[in-house]
Design brief:
single chain, about 350 residues, Alpha-Beta Plaits, 4-stranded antiparallel beta sheet, 12 helices
């Protein structure tokens, strides 16, 4: 038998949508007995795998083995880049669904149920932030967070029912409380800058750009935009993700993991963090981030006991494109609101 040595192999990965995918894939594949290191690239949809492989390793079999470690998360490791089929069929369903939801929002605005137009010093309406949280929890951007929940569930599976419940409750409480506190700190930082109307305008545009990039990547229409996806430095994301391996009991570790999710790479979270900064006060930033975390809670709580999510179903393409259309709508609305704030155009959708 050939002696094993450190060898690098390059593969393609289907199903990558955001920076969180890179972290999740790297973490999962290092569980393979032969793999020492993995480097994933969203923009290239590739992974470089370094490990103790044989000189005459069957590459096709290795690709299948690696796929088995990530297929539950909706990814597939291949030797060749897949030629993507037309997205037209998904858009046939996604466009009318998305437009229907958008029309309902506009009618709600006209009826005075929700006010979408933000002015200097105000956050997005809390119902809208809550909705963004729901969409985020169903998207691949939250794949890492969902993976952490499942990982903790497996870690405490042999413990008593009470221990398992405490660990899950601790995670969710830690996440909500940390988002409240850290969001408030972002608001305070914004206040220290004494944000002018011009700064609010610039922040609104930055938020809108982040959301547009996120929406385009969710709809998977221009692959080049994956290179523009904003992300936390990888070393921070990896450190946040590795906290779950430091088992210190039912309470402490889950709380720390919940708090660490604030720093994981997710375009939705980052856009809300920018918004929290723009509020310019503790309560504005705290309520923004806590409401977003509460929006993600129902699905993440469900994931605590089951790994079923809409984003992994056979209708995932329709869901992502529908969500992308809605996020794009909010981004464009944010741009129009910013222009109205500067007096460049008249306010829209206001009563």
């Amino acid at each position: 038998m050939s002696e094993k040595k450190t060898i690098c192999h390059e593969f393609y990965v289907d199903g990558m949508h955001c920076a969180a995918c890179e972290i999740l894939i790297e973490k999962k594949l290092t569980n393979h007995s032969k793999v020492k290191k993995v480097k994933a690239s969203l923009s290239k949809e590739k992974i470089i795998v370094e490990g103790n492989f044989e000189d005459e390793e069957n590459i096709e079999e290795l690709a299948k083995e690696l796929s088995s470690f990530v297929e539950k998360e909706g990814y597939k490791v291949t030797l060749k880049k897949s030629i993507k089929k037309s997205n037209l069929d998904d858009f046939i369903f996604a466009v009318p669904i998305g437009l229907t939801i958008i029309i309902l929002f506009i009618l709600s605005q006209k009826l005075g149920l929700i006010n979408f137009i933000n002015t200097a010093g105000e956050t997005l309406p809390l119902p809208v932030i809550f909705l963004i949280g729901i969409v985020a929890s169903l998207s691949s951007c939250m794949a890492v967070v969902g993976g952490l929940v499942l990982s903790m569930a497996a870690t405490y599976a042999k413990e008593s029912r009470t221990g398992k419940n405490i660990s899950q409750i601790s995670f969710h409480l830690g996440r909500i409380i940390s988002f409240f506190i850290l969001g408030g700190l972002l608001g305070i930082i914004g206040a220290s800058f004494k944000l002018s109307t011009t700064i609010y305008f610039i922040l609104d545009l930055i938020i809108a750009v982040v959301m547009i990039i996120l929406a385009i990547n969710m709809m998977d229409i221009f692959p080049v935009f994956k290179k523009l996806q904003p992300r936390m430095p990888k070393f921070l994301s990896r450190k946040a993700l590795n906290i779950e391996a430091q088992d210190k009991g039912f309470l402490i570790t889950p709380i720390l993991v919940g708090a660490a999710t604030f720093f994981l790479p997710c375009g939705f979270t980052q856009s809300m963090q920018l918004y929290a900064l723009s509020t310019g006060n503790f309560w504005g930033g705290a309520s923004t981030m806590m409401t977003f975390a509460l929006g993600t809670l129902p699905i993440l709580a469900l994931v605590s006991f089951a790994s079923i999510t809409l984003s992994k179903s056979n209708k995932a393409g329709i869901f992502f494109k529908t969500a992308g259309i809605i996020v794009l709508f909010f981004a464009l609305l944010n741009i129009l609101g910013a222009l109205a704030l500067m007096g460049i155009i008249e306010p829209i959708l206001n009563i």
